[in-house]
Protein: Protein CMS1
Organism: Penicillium canescens
Amino acid sequence: MPDAVASTGLSDKLQNKRKRQADDSSKQEQPEGAATNAEGSKKKKQKKNKKNKKKTDQDGEQSKKPEDKEGIDDSIGKMDGRLLGDHFAQKAKRLDKQLSAVELSDLSVPDSAFLDTSSFTAARDLDQLPDFLKAFSPKGTDLSKSSEQNGTPHTLVISGAALRAANVVRALRSFQTKESIVGKLFAKHIKLEEAKQFLQRARSGICAGTPTRIADLIESGTLKLDELERIVIDGSHIDQKQRGIFDMKETHIPLLKLLTRPEVSKRYGASKKGVKILVF
């Protein structure tokens, strides 16, 4: 009898020991699973956050793109001569506060100098520039023709920057022939001496450039204004910083000085060899 009791007690002890081992084993395995689940959850959260961040970055880029694009100031094309003359004067006064009343008067462009182009309803982007020129040229005018005298254009197109002027040249290729080259009168990759040499050896009906470079070439005598009929100002265009040719002192003041040169201004409104300003 004592042997049976002892055997039973030993059996109970073995069972209890095995039960404790099983419990311990279960407890040890549980944290591993919990850690694995936590790690998986963390990775999912990081992936989600990364995705959200990427979306935010993309949204940020999209929100900035409209500000970085060039554009068109539609209000410019709606102005007649009187409004344009006042606009030019007000801009000059704001951009250079050191100008005296006399100096401002010397830089003023008369209303009669402008040709009213407000009837042109198409968007004033470069694709429309050839049609714009045709629309406001006398009937039967062939804009692809040029003077037999080298460096004597009938049309000057003035932009606020060299890069923009280069784009204008490309837009006007339809008027270029072997006998009449669209002139590049801007400083980007073209030295002043190179521009002088071009005007001395080539016939050019239309030239596109910037105010300062054009003025320098007139001063040098290589750009002749004897047969000039129209000055087209690339006025509606605004750059990536939302600035137009009238909004910057370094372009607007030289432009006014060019437009008020005696050899040009005396021909505004003239019946013979007159010159008109068109604002595109």
In short: The beta strands are 71-72, 155-158, 183-185, 206-209, 230-233, 237-238, 276-279. Confidence is low (pLDDT under 50) at residues 1-7, 29-36, 53-67.
